[in-house]
Amino acid sequence: MINFLILPILIPLITGVLLIFAAKRIMLQRWIAGLSSVITIMVSALLVQKVRNDGIQTLDVSSWEAPFGITLVSDMMSAILVLTTSIVAFACLIYSFWSIGEDREKFYYYAAFNFLIVGVNGAFTTGDIFNLFVFFEVMLMASYVLLVLGGKKAQLRESIKYILVNVISSALFVIAVAYLYSVVGTLNMAHISVRISEISQVAQPGIITVIAVLFLIVFGLKGAIFPLYFWMPGSYYAPPAPILALFGALLTKVGVYSITRTYTLFFYHDIGFTHQLLSILAIMSIIVGVIGAIAYWDVKKIIIYNIIVAVGAILFGISAMTPDALSGSIFYLVHDMIIKAALFLLAGIVIAIAGTSDLHKISGLIKRYPGLGWTFFIAALALAGIPPLSGFIGKLLIVKGGFEAEQYWGAGIVLMSSLLVLFSIMKIFINGFWGTPRAYNGEDKVPVGKMMIAPVILVVMAVLYGVGSEFVYPYISQAAETLANPTIYIEAVLKEY
Amino acid sequence: MKTNDVILQTATKVVLFIIVLFSIHIFFAGHYTPGGGFVGGLLTSGAIVLLLLAFDMKTVSKILPVNYIHMIAIGLLFSIGTGAGALLFNVPFLTHAFGHVELPVLGDTSLHTATLFDLGVFLVVVGVTMTIIQTIGEDE
User: Fold this and answer.
1) A26-61 burial string, b = 16+ CB within 10 Å, else e?
2) In whole numbers, what is the pLDDT of chain A averaged over residues?
3) What residues in A contact B96, CB-CB < 8 Å?
4) Average pLDDT value for residue range A459-482
5) CB nearest A61 (choices: B70, B77, B92)
6) Which of A141, A128, A120, A127 is nearest to A254 (CA)?
C-alpha cells in the first residue's frame, strides 16, 4: 500500500473528528482515543520496519510529482520519531483517564489531544517547507487549547504569553519561507537543497547564511534554545501533568527536529559560520538549563529546565556534523522524549499526592509509595545517562563526536552537565522521597496505582532502549546516514535527479 | 421605549435570500472563476449574522436548528473522506477524480471530487464562524 506513511497522520485526524461527536460521553471517548492510539503505535512500528527494509518512503500527495506537489517523506529519522511520538501519546492518554478530570474531558480534551498528535506526526513526516509550517500551526493551535483548557488564572496568564510568542515566531517562519522562496523558487525540501547547492558551488551566498540564521531563530523559539527559551519555564508550569508531559516530550522536540532537518539538508555548505553559531547557542542552552535546574526547589521547574539542557545536548551533536555525533543526537532525542514524558508523569503523581510542587514541603514519600519512589529513581538515573540505561549511549556518541570535531570545550561541558543534571534530579529524590514521612491532605483520593501504569510503561521502554541499544543501533545509524549524506534523501524524493 | 425594527426585519427577509444565492453561486464557481469554499462559507455566515442582527438569538436558532460544532466535524469528515477515498483505489492520498456526466436537467456537466472537498471547507467555515459569534454573543 503506497499510502502507508500517511496513516500515522490520518488515524489521529479521523479520531479527533469523531471525538467531536462523542464530546459528552466520556467512556466512549476514552475507548475510541485509546484504540486509535494503539493502532497508531502498531502502524508506526510497521512503518519503521518498512523504512528499514525498503529505504526511504515517499508519497506524492494527490499524484503530483515531486517538486510540484506536496511530498511526504518518511526517512528513518522521521519514522523513529513518529513511533516515539505515538508511544508517548499513548502513555499520556491513559494517564489522562485517571487524572485530567471530567470537566476537561467533556470539553473536547481528547479531540484537541488527537489534533496535537496530527500536528506533531505531520511535522515529522512532511517533505515540504510550507507544509511544515502548516503542521506547526496545527500542533500549536491544539497546544493553545490544551494549555488554556480548564481556565485557571495561571493558565490564562501563561497562555497569553505562549500564544504571543508563538504568533510572533510563526510570522517569522512565514517571512523566512518567503525569503527562501524568493531565492530558490521552490518549497519542496529536497528541491530546495538541490537549488542551494547549485548556487553555493563556489561559496555560500550571504543571503543563504542570513536565511539559515533566521530559521535558527524561528525553530529556536519553538524549541527553546538559549536566548529564546524565556517563555518556556512559565508556560509549561501552568497546565496539568499529562498535558505538560505531552508538551515537554513532543513540542520542543519538533523544533529540534526542524533545526536538524534544515541544518543537515539545506545549509551544510558553509558550516564554519552557521554550525559554529548553533554550537555556541547549544552550549549556552546547556549552561542556562543546568543553572535553572539546580537553582529551583520546585519539582516541575527542575524538570522543565532539564528540557533546555537536553535540547542543548542534542543540538550540540547536530552542530558537530560527524556521523557519530549525529547518531548520538538521534539516540538522545528519542531517549529524551521518552524519559521527559515519564518524569513529568511521575512528578504529576508526586504533586497529586502532596498537593504542592514545593520540595521543602514534600518528604518521605518512599515509605508509603515504594513503587513510585524506585520508578522515579530509575528514571532519574536514565536521565543523567548512567550506563545500562537509555541516556548513556546517546551522550557517549555526542561526546565522542564532539571530540572528533575537536570541540573539546563543548564536549567537556556536555559531560559536566550530566553531573549537574543528576544532582538536580537527585535533589527531588532525596528531599521528596527520603526523610520523615508526612501526612498530606486528600492523598487517599489519588488513584496512584492506576496513574502509575503510564510512567511504568515509559520507564520500562527507557530501560529496554538502553539495554537493547545493540538492537536499536542499526536503525539509528541508518537515520544518521541520511542526515550526514543529503543526496540519499534528495534521490529518494526527486526520482530522476 | 420599545424599538420597532420593522424596516430592518423586512429588508432582511428579502436580502437574506439574495446573499445565500450569491454565496452558493460563489461556491460552485470556484473552479473556473474566483471563489470557492472559503468565501462561499464566509458569505453564508454573513447572511446568518444579518439574521442575528435583525432578530434575536432565540429566533435564529429556531429558524436554523443547527449544531454548529457538529457542522465543523461533518465538514472535516467530508474533506478527509474525499482525501481518504483515494486510499481505496491505491492511489496517493487526496488524488481527485474528474469526469463529464450527462445529468437529466443540466445536461453535460463536469463533476470533480474537489467540489466535495470544498463542500467540507464550506461547512467548516460556516461552523467555525457561527460558533465564534454565537459563543461570544451568548456570553454574559
Assistant:
1) eeebbebbeebbebbbebbeebbeebeeeebbbbbb
2) 92
3) 62
4) 92
5) B92
6) A120
Give residue A279's pLDDT. Answer: 93
Q: Pick from A3, A18, A23: which is nearest to B87 by CB? A: A3
* Residue whose C-alpha cell is 519503521: A48
Contact A220, A228 (CB under 8 A): yes
**Beta bridge pairs of residue B100:** B110
The residue to which cell 558537530 is assigned: A320
| Binding-face residues of B in 96-115 toward A, CB within 8 A | 96
Residues A322 and A400: their CA atoms lie apart, in Å, by 10
First to last CA, chain A: 24
Contact between chains at B73 and A17 (C-beta distance less than 8 A): yes
Cell 546517546 belongs to A394
pLDDT classification of A497: cutoffs 50, 70, 90: low
According to the model, what pLDDT value does residue B1 have?
60
The C-alpha angle B26, B86, B116, rounded to 5 degrees, equals 20
Q: Which residue type does A303 have?
A: I
Strand partners, B101: B109
| Interface contact flag, B84 A10, Cβ < 8 Å | yes
The single-letter code of the amino acid at A197 is S
Q: What is the pLDDT of residues A310-362, one digit of tens each?
A: 999 999 999 988 888 999 999 999 999 999 999 999 999 999 998 888 999 88
Question: Cβ of B70 under 8 Å from any chain A Cβ?
Answer: yes
Q: Show residues of chain A in contact with B123, CB under 8 Å.
A: none
